[in-house]
Amino acid sequence: MSIIPRLAVAAGLAALAAAVALPAVEAQPSGGPQRAGACFRVSQITNMKAAGARIIYARVSGRVFRIDLQSDCEGLGDGSDVPILSPVEDEVCTPLELTITLRDTHQRCIAQDIVRLSDDEAAALPKSVAP
Questions:
Q1: Which residues of 57-80 are buried (b: 16+ CB within 10 A; e: fewer)?
Q2: What does R_g of the chain's alpha carbons equal in angstroms?
Q3: What is the enclosing helix (H) or strand (E) of 46?
Q4: What pLDDT score was predicted for residue 80?
Q5: In the 8-state DSSP scheme, what is residue 23?
Q6: 6-63: per-residue pLDDT in tens?
Q7: Where are the domains of the chain?
Q8: CA atoms of 74 and 83, how far apart (whole Å)
Q9: Which end of the chain is less packed: N or C, by CB atoms within 10 Å?
């Protein structure tokens, strides 16, 4: 075996060893880092309130979640309509797993983000929007 094939084999083995030695990196969803505890069951929602046309707060088993919408959802901002959350499955962890429809107008609203609020953040919500 000549020197060039030996160098190619050695370089390939070195690259393989380096790749194996590197720590595994978990892929993050394209929407940003996942937040611990950002999943909830729609069947356990006890109350919901809208805060304008782009935010819905939901109380689930004593925890409060903020659902951010991609665009204004007519009827939410003035409180004239009620959002209905329809999950793909009962447990919702990402916005893609949730369909939001307004009860009276049947307008669909697209969720952009779901955030579980800390106890301090939930307690700081104004009474007008706290679920």
A1: bbbbeeebbbbebeeebebbeeee
A2: 23
A3: strand 45-50
A4: 81
A5: P
A6: 544 444 444 434 443 433 333 333 344 444 567 999 999 999 999 999 999 999 999 9
A7: 40-123
A8: 11
A9: N
